[in-house]
From TrEMBL:
Taxonomic classification: Bacteria, Bacillati, Actinomycetota, Actinomycetes, Micrococcales
Localization (cell): Cytoplasm
CP-type G domain boundaries: 117-288
The protein's role, per its UniProt record: One of several proteins that assist in the late maturation steps of the functional core of the 30S ribosomal subunit. Helps release RbfA from mature subunits. May play a role in the assembly of ribosomal proteins into the subunit. Circularly permuted GTPase that catalyzes slow GTP hydrolysis, GTPase activity is stimulated by the 30S ribosomal subunit.
Cofactor note (record): Binds 1 zinc ion per subunit.
SUPFAM superfamilies: P-loop containing nucleoside triphosphate hydrolases
Binding-site residues for Zn(2+), renumbered to this chain: C312, C316, H318, C325
InterPro entries: G_CP_dom, P-loop_NTPase, Ribosome_biogen_GTPase_RsgA, RsgA_GTPase_dom
Enzymatic class: hydrolase
Name the UniProt record assigns to this protein: Small ribosomal subunit biogenesis GTPase RsgA
Length: 369
């Protein structure tokens, strides 16, 4: 099985920015050069200073254009999913090179920090509106710590999370799902077609069509990030959804997948879906540090609890140990409804995901709980 994650070269300096300038990654209008002739493209991947964008999407002029960044962007990161302005040779002809002069304002930004104490955060993907957390029911064992961390990152980014459980032929996922009942987290399942024997080749395993179609319907019309540890069957799913087939050397017409060997995020078009439906695969991501996360943003994802925090002490982190946290009274008074207690327990577990004492870096990378 081909492993695409080539360790530490997945992020370079330009992917990095330093707190506390929270709005720093959003281009401010006054910084923008005029470039009125720039055309807009969507970044599908970034590899060694080369930015690949798709232009004139869903028209008969659709093409891939490779660009280098203009100096005036400084070190501002450009990532998969970014909408960018391009000038120069935007023909997409072989060996042509355009110039990337502008990053359009991002609807969402999925971020991570290297670990929970590292204040440097990296932009992972821009403009996604769904985060699909892929775990296997078994082999490898699902880690609720990893799921919780990914949920926190999604809530922080204002991106809708979904849980996708693969290899449901190996174990009934009911117990795993029960951890998330109170979160109202949509769960989608995947497994092999009934007559398929699981083998070592992820690209050829035929998946249950009904389950794949349910996932496709859920992703239709969205830009979804797929996140999951190696071996969970993410490539198998991506291949089923995009029609790419790495095993036979097939190449996705739009993205050139098949030749793509780097570990950076890659946007792929979903087959048989409406225009604008993309999945962004993130092969290089193993760790999900949460040092950048603002606890208020996580609470705000819980509608019935969000109002309570106006009554919290300044700087409250809303954990069980936070003195004077207003969430406890709010729930005790029934203001969060019948499910208030379990919702608060789930919220607190998530808030604790970045703050478990004694966790090693390895634990964090794997999301071991
Ligand atoms: N039993 C079973 N095996 C599966 C299923 N989906 C994928 N597999 C197998 O799991 C293994 C890993 O699948 P991949 O799709 O390569 O997994 P991945 O998450 O992309 O892993 P990397 O390629 O290492 O990033 C392969 O041997 C697949 O055949 C499933 O639903 N059930
Ligand atoms: Zn509080």
């Amino acid at each position: 099985m081909a492993r695409r994650d080539s360790a530490r070269r997945d992020w370079d300096e330009s992917d990095v920015r330093v707190r506390p300038n929270k709005s720093g990654s959003r281009p401010r209008t006054k910084d923008r050069p005029a470039h009125r002739d720039a055309v807009t493209g969507r970044i599908v991947t970034v590899d060694r200073g080369r930015y690949t964008a798709v232009l004139d999407e869903d028209t008969d002029r659709e093409r891939l254009v490779v660009a280098v960044r203009a100096k005036e962007l400084h070190r501002r990161p450009v990532v998969a999913g970014d909408l960018v302005g391009l000038v120069g040779d935007v023909s997409g002809a072989p060996d042509s090179l355009a110039r990337l002069v502008r990053i359009e304002e991002r609807a969402t930004v999925l971020r991570r920090s290297a670990d929970d104490t590292d204040p440097v955060e990296r932009v992972v993907v821009a403009n996604a509106d769904q985060l699909v957390i892929v775990v296997a029911a078994a082999n490898p064992e699902p880690r609720t710590g990893f799921i919780d961390r990914s949920l926190v990152a999604a809530y922080d980014a204002g991106i809708e999370p979904l849980l996708c459980i693969t290899k449901t032929d190996l174990r009934d996922p009911a117990e795993l799902i029960s951890h998330y009942t109170a979160l109202e987290l949509p769960v989608l399942l995947s497994g092999p077609a009934r007559d398929a024997a699981a083998d070592d080749d992820g690209a050829t395993l035929p998946l249950d069509r009904t389950l794949v179609e349910a996932l496709r319907a859920r992703l239709d019309g969205h830009v979804s990030v797929l996140l999951g540890h190696s071996g969970v069957g993410k490539s198998t799913l991506v291949n089923a959804l995009t029609g790419a087939d790495r095993a036979t050397g097939g190449v996705n017409a739009v993205t050139g997948r098949g030749r793509h060997t780097s570990s950076s995020a890659l946007a792929l078009r979903i087959e048989d879906a409406s225009p604008g439906s993309w999945i962004i695969d993130t092969p290089g991501i193993r760790s999900f540090g949460l040092a950048h996360v603002d606890p208020d943003r996580i609470v705000e994802s819980f509608d019935e609890l969000a109002e309570a925090i106006a009554e919290c002490p300044k700087g409250c982190r809303h954990t069980e140990a936070s003195p004077g946290c207003a969430l406890d009274d709010w729930v005790a008074q029934g203001r969060a409804g019948d499910a208030g207690t379990s919702r608060l327990a789930s919220l607190r577990r998530l808030l604790g995901a970045g703050e478990r004492p004694g966790e090693s870096r390895e634990d964090k990378e794997l999301g071991i709980q």
